[in-house]
Design goal:
Helices cover about 75% and strands about 5% of the residues. By secondary structure, the protein is mainly α. The protein folds into two domains: about 100 residues, Transcription Regulator spoIIAA, CATH 3.30.750; about 250 residues, no CATH class. A three-stranded mixed β-sheet has the order 1-2-3. The longest helix is centred in the C-terminal third of the chain and has 40 residues.
Length: about 375
């Protein structure tokens, strides 16, 4: 087989491109170098001579299309009488195919610093959109509540009681047990540190102040964020995936009123009660350690709490509970409505609801602590 060639005959007037030999796959590498060398020297007016063209296959036709252009190759295949019918048909087919081909864009090379900054920017943009959606959903929830509160016939009392049992009553054992253990550990660590200064008696104040202001409400909120927010997202997400929410709308019912309000109100009612139980359990755990390790009897423990710790510390802690409860419930419901149609989406949004709830709770608790400190509360 004669290797294909393409030469620009400068002796002819005007200069003519003579294509000869076999343009087939075995000669592809050599022909590609020839084509790359001639591309810059040809223009659309250069005459083409295909009379000496030998064997031709799809690879060779594609190289000719790259050299001459897909449109011009199709014209040559139509107008050149020296081409056999088989080659003419092949060139026309390849020309049409190459005419619709779009060269893929070569992605620019990035360094690691650019990639990291791009990921940070994308994450910040995603967080911003999440907060905008959360604010909008909070407004929609409050609007639905305002429209329903004056219409007792539209109250979902049975659903509210059921969710209160699921959210509040069923969570009592884990909340009480955890805060009891945290109170005991906090008292033990506090007494260990304060013993170096001969001030172990202030362990009572440390435990009472920390639990009344911070630990009880924060631990309860984190537990409910992991337990209840995930359950709410999974429930609503499964309904969304099974198109049950579309069925609710088709029946003329409002999903916000039917699904969101009972869960939000149940959280608003349950969270303060759980926080109060967490405060009591934390104080009992701390009092038990004080009695067993420091020799402070329960009566003395209670008297020190009454004397040194004001009611305002209890009010500061319990006031956070409804705010945390509302946000945890709203985030759980919102993530449930974001579920698309797969089990993977349910899992992703369940994880997202827990992470967002815990993040928002800790952030608001820190902001509230700074505000109370500046106000002298």
């Amino acid at each position: 087989m004669a290797t294909g060639s393409a030469q620009l005959d400068a002796t002819a007037q005007p200069p003519r491109l003579r294509v000869a030999g076999d343009w087939t796959l075995p000669h592809y590498a050599a022909l590609e170098r020839v084509v790359n060398g001639l591309k810059s020297r040809l223009d659309s007016q250069t005459p083409i001579d295909l009379s000496a063209l030998g064997a031709l296959d799809t690879a060779g036709a594609a190289l000719l299309a790259g050299l001459l252009g897909a449109a011009r190759l199709g014209d040559l295949a139509t107008d050149d009488p020296t081409l056999p019918p088989a080659q003419r048909a092949l060139l026309q087919t390849v020309g049409k195919a190459m005419a619709g081909h779009v060269q893929p864009k070569v992605s620019p090379r990035h360094n690691s610093v650019t990639d990291v900054l791009a990921r940070i920017g994308a994450a910040m943009e995603h967080i911003w959109h999440q907060q905008i959606q959360l604010l909008g959903f909070v407004g929609l929830t409050l609007q639905t509540l305002a429209q329903t509160v004056w219409r007792p016939r539209r109250w979902r009392v049975t659903s509210l009681v059921a969710h209160m049992e699921e959210t509040g009553l069923d969570a009592v054992p884990i909340v009480v047990l955890l805060t009891f253990m945290v109170g005991a550990v906090g008292a033990f660590l506090g007494s260990t540190v304060l013993a170096d200064f001969g001030a172990t008696i202030y362990t009572v104040d440390l435990v009472a102040l920390s639990f009344l202001r911070e630990f009880a409400v924060l631990r309860t909120a984190i537990l409910l964020a992991g337990r209840t927010a995930s359950a709410v997202t999974a429930q609503i997400g499964s309904m969304k995936a099974n198109e049950e929410i579309d069925a609710i709308r088709a029946l003329g019912l409002d999903p916000m009123e039917l699904l969101v309000l009972p869960r939000v109100l149940a959280m608003l009612a349950s969270m303060p009660m759980l926080t109060f139980l967490a405060m009591i359990a934390g104080l009992i755990g701390g009092g038990l350690v004080c009695a067993l390790v420091l020799g402070i009897p329960p009566v003395m423990f209670i008297n020190l709490v009454k004397t040194d710790i004001g009611v305002r510390h209890f009010l500061v802690g319990i006031a956070k509970a409804p705010v945390f409860a509302f946000l945890i419930a709203v985030i759980g419901c919102l993530e449930g409505f974001k579920v698309t149609g797969s089990a993977e989406s349910v899992g992703e949004h369940t994880t997202s609801s827990v992470v967002q709830s815990i993040f928002v709770v800790i952030l608001l608790d820190a902001v509230a602590a700074l505000f109370y400190m500046e106000m002298g509360w």
